[in-house]
Amino acid sequence: MADAAIRFGIIGCAEIARKVSRAITLAPNAKLAAVGSRSYEKAARFAAENNFPSDAKIYGSYEAVLDDPNVDAVYVPLPTSLHVRWAVLAAQKKKHVLLEKPVALNAVEFDAIVEACESNGVQFMDGTMWMHNPRTAKMKEFLSDNQRFGQPKSIQTIFTFAADPDFLKNDIRVKPDLDAHGALGDAGWYCIRSILWVADYELPKTVIALHGAVLNDAGVILSCGASLHWDDGKVATFHCSFLSHLTMDITAIGTKGTLHLHDFVVPFQEKEASFSAGSECWFNELVSGWEPPPSKQIVTTDLPQEALMVKEFSSLVEAIKVKGSKPEKKWPTISRKTQLVLDAVKASIEKGFEPVELGN
Known about the structure:
alpha/beta, Rossmann fold, Dihydrodipicolinate Reductase, domain 2, six-stranded parallel β-sheet, 27% strand, globular, nucleotide binding, Gfo/Idh/MocA-like_OxRdtase_N, GFO_IDH_MocA-like_dom, Oxidoreductase
C-alpha cells in the first residue's frame, strides 16, 4: 500500500458499509483506519466480520471517529435524516466526506452539507458507485458522438427490486423518521442520476410525478415514477420500486443511435460489464431483420466499481492533502442536480401529481 494512502473512518455499521469497507481495502490508495458505532461492541463486531486491519481503531461513538487525528476522510452510511448533522460536523472537523445517497432530505439540507465542505476545504462525493465503472465512461463516449448517437431525444430508466415483508415493515428505508424518501431516494436517485448523465446534466424544465405512486401507512414511497421534460423537446421517464422484480435498465435514444443496458446500478458480473449500442440501424430489404444490428460492447476492470469510487475519491483527497489543490466541484454539482430533481418528484406527488418547474 502506498505511503500516501488515505485513511478512512466509517461512521455507522449499515449493510452497505460492508461493501464499501471492502472497497476501501481493495483500493490501492486507501486504508481502513477506524470504525465507530453507537456501541463499542457493534463497531468491534463489524470490524471483525469485515476484515479490518489489526491497527484500525474501534470506537463506541461517531464523534470519536471524527476526533481521531489519524482519520483523513469518513464514509457516512447513516440514514438520510442524519446526514446533515454528521456530514456537516465531519467537514467542520476537516474530514473529507464520502456520503451515501440520497444525500439529504431536501436541497436546503444538501446545501448546508456542501457549504460546510467548501468552507472547510474538504472533498465531497456521494456514493453513486456506477458512475465510476469504466463502462460508464465508455458509454459516455458513444452518447457524446454526434455521428453515432446524435442528439438525445428520449431516456427511460428503471430500478426496482422486490423487497421481502420484513424489509417493508422494518427497514430504515420505509421509516419516515429515518429515510423519508423511501424508494424514491434509495432507487430513484440512481434513475434520476442516469437521466441527467445522458442529458449531460442539463436540468429538465418540468418534472411531473406519474399517477400510481404507492405509499405505506406512514406515508413513505414504496413505488413511484415521473416524467421529465426539457425545452428542446427531450423527454425522460423513470420508475423505481420496492415492489417489483429486480430490474436496472437504461434506454437512451438519440437521433442517430440507441443505447441499452440492463444492470446499470450493479453489473451482472463484478469485473465485466456490457451494453448494447446501435447506430443508424434500419430494416433489411424484406423487413425481417436489422441492418446493421446493435453491437454488444464489453468492458472489463481489475477493480469493482465501488473500489474505483474509493480510488477516485482518495486521489482527490490526496491532491488536497499533499498538493494543496482545491476540492473538485464536479461531484457536488452533479449531486445537487440529482437532489433538485428528486425534490421535484416528491413535491409533485405531494401536490397531487401536478407539474413542478425547475430552473437551470
